[in-house]
């Protein structure tokens, strides 16, 4: 991939470049679904973070858990969730905006002082559209969009997933970006577009070796 192909994945709608990856082991927890869906989500987490070469853990020493996924039937359920407003002080205003936008999904990222991802909160409203998506596809897509701070426009026109003979899989180019982004020599966060040049160079080097 060329730099011009990589940069848009981390260039936000306001024109700024912003990249971040997890800088601590991930500890996921899921609310609002049956055990079967929890297993599917945790399987997706394990698969994507294994691809990145990133660790999982039983607990986060600061937060306990740091990757929270909430499945709800309506946005009011978030306001009714005990103590969630303590984790997300802006919750009431957020729910109002989600209702107004008729949104069915939203992600909040929290960051360490070095800019690395500290926590992610994923909210999924299971409306008619979301309910019609297979659980494995839905879960894989959400994990992929949570492993990096992608641009707010990164996947508006194209899903990070693709259909294969074995079912939905991560698109090869997205998988390679994730692998390279988690290379230990790469920074955990970046605000300069020259970062995309470094990503592209490593992608090209890997392609030349394959």
Overall shape: globular
SSE pattern: HEEHEHHHEEHHEEHEH
Q: Which radius of gyration do the C-alpha atoms yield?
A: 17 Å
User: What's the overall average pLDDT, rounded?
Assistant: 93
Q: Low-confidence parts, pLDDT < 50 over ≥5 residues?
A: none
The biggest beta sheet reads:
4 strands, mixed
Proportion of strand residues: 15-25%
Helical amount: 40-55%
**How many helix segments?**
9
Reading side by side through the largest sheet, how are the strands ordered? 2-3-5-4
**Integer tally of domains:** 2
Number of strands: 8
CATH topology of the largest domain: Chitobiase, domain 2
Report on the architecture of this protein.
The protein has 2 domains: 1-21 and 151-210, no CATH class; 22-147, Chitobiase, domain 2. It is built from 9 helices and 8 strands. The chain has helices at residues 3-6, 35-52, 76-80, 84-87, 91-101, 128-131, 135-147, 172-181, 194-209; strands at 19-20, 28-31, 67-72, 105-111, 117-125, 161-164, 167-170, 189-190. The strands form 3 sheets. A 4-stranded mixed β-sheet has the order 2-3-5-4, with helices on one face. Strand 6 (161-164) and strand 7 (167-170) form a beta hairpin. Helix 2 (35-52) packs across helix 7. It is globular, with a radius of gyration of 17 Å. The two termini are 14 Å apart. The model has no long low-confidence stretch (mean pLDDT 93).
Which descriptors would you attach to this protein?
Chitobiase, domain 2; 8 strands; two-stranded antiparallel ribbon; 210 residues; alpha/beta
Put the structure in a nutshell.
The protein is α/β, with parallel strands linked by helices and 210 residues long.
């Amino acid at each position: 991939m060329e730099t011009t192909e990589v940069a848009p994945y981390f260039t936000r709608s306001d024109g700024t470049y912003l990249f971040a990856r997890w800088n601590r082991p991930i500890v996921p927890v899921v609310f609002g679904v049956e055990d079967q869906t929890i297993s599917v989500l945790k399987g997706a987490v394990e698969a994507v973070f294994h691809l990145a070469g990133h660790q999982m853990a039983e607990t986060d020493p600061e937060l306990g858990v740091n990757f929270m996924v909430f499945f709800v039937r309506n946005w009011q359920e978030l306001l009714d969730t005990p103590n969630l407003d303590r984790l997300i002080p802006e919750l009431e205003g957020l729910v109002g905006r989600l209702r107004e936008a008729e949104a069915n999904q939203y992600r909040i990222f929290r960051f360490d002082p070095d800019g690395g991802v500290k926590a992610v909160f994923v909210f999924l409203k299971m409306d008619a559209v979301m309910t019609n998506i297979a659980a494995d596809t839905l879960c894989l897509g959400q994990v992929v969009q949570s492993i990096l701070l992608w641009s707010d426009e990164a996947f508006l026109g194209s899903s990070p997933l693709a259909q294969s003979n074995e079912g939905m899989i991560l698109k090869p180019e997205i998988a390679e970006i994730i692998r390279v982004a988690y290379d230990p020599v790469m920074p955990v966060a970046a605000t300069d577009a020259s970062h995309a040049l470094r990503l592209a160079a490593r992608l090209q080097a890997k392609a030349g070796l394959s």
